Write the structure tokens for this entry.
Amino acid sequence: MNTISKIFFVLFLILLVQENPYYNKFKRPSTYGITQYVEKFQDIIIKEYTDNVDSLFHIDVFTENLSLYGGKNDLGAFFPGDNIIILTNKEKYIEYEFKNLTKSKQRLITYRDRTVKAVLFHELTHAYFYQTVAQMKMSGLYVSSEYSFLNLFPQLDLRLGAEFIEEGICEYVVYYLKESSPLVNPFIPKTVKDVVDSSNEIYVKYHYSVYFLTDFLDKYGIKKGIEILVSNKPPSYEEMVNPKLFFERLIYPS
């Protein structure tokens, strides 16, 4: 190998190992990349959401270290008073978008492996949920008090039930928009104890809730589904364990 060839070979190796600023050393989205992605693509992602779900009020999306706001493990948060979504810029995401993953990785990821786009879809659905409830109230339609956005609940099970329904809808939309692999082997609580066990909280609120709501939302759609659900009291602990009890007592507004 002559001198010029050696120089080109060394330059090639330097370029090969040069860090991609959009990914960290574990090949996951970097803090820099997350911020750039959200700034550049939020309008496109919001349009994709509105084209496939429904229109939304104006929402601004930013990135920040959510642990500074007390959300140590949160990937995203919606602030309804300001119509702002903040996605964490901590390097916790598996990819920017689900389509960027290889087919084998797509099959292997779990509901905890979230892309940046999936978390944004989830938080946009919180915004859509609040929007739908606000529109119902302005139209004079009944909304059960547990969905009034006040953290004053007479029963702890109904408080969890309201969160369970809202989070389940948000996660359903992530699957509906194909930003995650299909839900398989969901955690299904067998007893009330399983529901209230704090070690099961993530599984119940973000995993089982989708399983609980999928057939209902598939039948009625997202908007109509929200309207029906929030016009009824949330599921109790017992109804979370026995979905049939919940869905059979729903009153469907005309």
